[in-house]
TrEMBL record:
This is Acid protease. Residues 124-146 are annotated as: Disordered. It holds the Pfam family Asp. It comes from Pseudomicrostroma glucosiphilum. Keywords: Aspartyl protease, Hydrolase, Protease. Belongs to the peptidase A1 family. Residues 156-445 form the Peptidase A1 domain. Residues 131-141 have a biased composition (Basic and acidic residues). One of its GO terms (molecular function) is aspartic-type endopeptidase activity. Gene3D superfamilies: Acid Proteases. InterPro entries: Aspartic_peptidase_A1, Aspartic_peptidase_AS, Pepsin-like_dom, PEPTIDASE_A1, Peptidase_aspartic_dom_sf.
Length: 449
């Protein structure tokens, strides 16, 4: 083994003109502090100094980056449990459309809370605020309450540790904070109780409220990081069949309910230089044991280089920049959200898409537009993401059947109050997705078979 010195440029640190997190506020140094990594012996044909290595990396195409691996990355195994949209009493994969509506309503509630947090943090109106409020008014008139228990059984769950206590967590790129049920975490001697509290009311009257603590965060083989915020609820606000005990958000800090004094866990990892690079990647699969969240690097399950699109950071979400995303030729604005089971689009655009697909019948029920297969052939759904095409896999294109045995497409139309589509699980299972905080980009790569 050979020691290889890699200099981490200060420009790789997070920054924002509008919102200052702990990562962004790190003072610039006259010269970046060297970081020693132990890497495998370089190929015998080429031997690079650290300066040459950095120069070579800077020459790589911005749109094509290959996986980077080091001892400062960690792959968290993810699992997915009972499909919460299926009728539990049936074994034929039948979908309960009432639960679909519940899931969509809770997505709407999540984005409402995020936008409220954004406006408190930024002291300005969120770009999506008016659309959310108008839709919330219509929703209140047309729909009843939605139980929070329906939201989480389809999220991807892994384990992290606070204060030495392992916690089963749902990882959500559509929110920012880490919140856990009462009893999931017990503050010990190393914990610090802050003056920060949180309170969020959901559609069924369920309230997640409690106090923010800080404690030492440990994730696998990464170096422990002290003083990382965790919100401990006073009740079991999250009820799932999977045993998940909380949610950890991976969106931008401007959406945080905890405020700038308590940055999200991934920001803390970056600030502490516990990860090699300020990015993380999801490689999800329908096959058991084949899904992971990799912190600090691109998943080794990526087949070849990734193609990147810019992120519109001003909204706080992982939203692709205008003009960078389309689906079957229809230009859309896309928020990439690991916490959404389906792909949710504007009803008019979804209807346009579904009506263009052979063998698909479009129906609208209770304000939700669905597509049903009338043949055994699954249509091709293609996302154009910058220069990259991602074709949804067949198993990701549908998510079950209705009571008549018709397959239901995983793309639905509903106004949830944001200017864009919420692109969830089907895209994640059809590609490796890289979220690059250092460059404010999202990358998409093919997955190894």
């Amino acid at each position: 083994m050979a020691d290889f010195e890699v200099v981490v440029p200060a420009s790789r640190l997070l920054s924002s003109a509008q919102f200052t997190s702990h990562v962004a506020s790190t003072p610039p140094l006259p010269r970046p502090t060297p970081l020693s990594l132990t890497l495998a012996t370089p190929p015998t044909a080429i031997v690079l100094t650290s300066l040459e290595y950095l120069q070579l990396r800077s020459l790589l195409s911005y749109h094509h980056q290959t996986p980077f691996h080091s001892n400062m990355t960690e792959a968290i195994a993810l699992s997915k449990n009972v499909h919460h949209l299926k009728v539990a009493a049936k074994s034929d994969g039948a979908i309960d459309l009432k639960l679909v509506q519940s899931h969509l309503k809770l997505i709407e509630r999540k984005f409402q809370l995020n936008i409220t947090n954004y406006e408190q943090n930024m002291a300005q109106k969120h770009p999506h605020a008016q659309a959310v409020r108008e839709d919330a008014d219509k929703s209140a008139e047309n729909e009843g309450d939605v139980p929070l228990t329906d939201q989480q059984d389809e999220l991807w769950t892994g384990t992290i540790s606070y204060g030495g206590q392992p916690i089963n967590i749902d990882f959500d790129t559509g929110s920012t904070d880490t919140l856990v049920n009462v009893g999931a975490y017990i503050p010990g001697d190393g914990a610090k109780k802050t003056s920060q509290t949180f309170k969020a009311r959901y559609g069924d009257g369920t309230t997640a409220e409690g106090t923010v603590y800080t404690d030492t965060l440990e994730i696998g083989g990464l170096a422990p990081v002290p003083n990382v915020a965790i919100g401990l609820a006073t009740t079991t606000f999250l009820k799932t069949e999977s045993g998940s005990q909380g949610i950890s958000g991976l969106a931008y800090p401007s959406l945080s309910h905890f405020g700038k004094d308590h940055p999200p866990f991934f920001d803390c990892l970056v600030t502490a230089k516990a990860v090699a690079r300020p990015l993380f990647s999801f490689a999800l699969s329908s096959e058991p044991g084949q899904s992971e969240l990799v912190l600090g690097s691109i998943s080794s399950k990526a087949a070849g280089p990734a193609t990147y699109v810019n992120v519109d950071r001003s909204v706080g979400f992982w939203q692709c920049a205008p003009g960078s995303c389309s689906i079957n030729g229809i230009q859309i604005s896309a928020i990439i959200d690991s916490g959404t089971t389906l792909i949710v689009g504007k009803p008019t655009q979804v209807a346009q898409l579904l009506e263009s697909l052979p063998g698909v019948k479009t129906e609208t029920q209770n304000g939700v537009t669905y597509g049903y297969l009338t043949t055994s052939v699954v249509p091709q759904i293609t996302f154009q993401l910058g220069e990259k095409q991602v074709v949804l896999t067949e198993d990701a294109t549908t998510y079950g059947t209705d009571d008549s045995g018709r397959k239901v497409l995983s793309i639905v139309g509903r106004d949830i109050g944001v200017e864009g589509w919420i692109v969830g699980d089907p895209l994640f299972r059809s590609s490796v997705i890289i979220f690059d905080r250092g460059n404010d980009t999202i990358g998409f790569a093919d997955r190894l078979a």
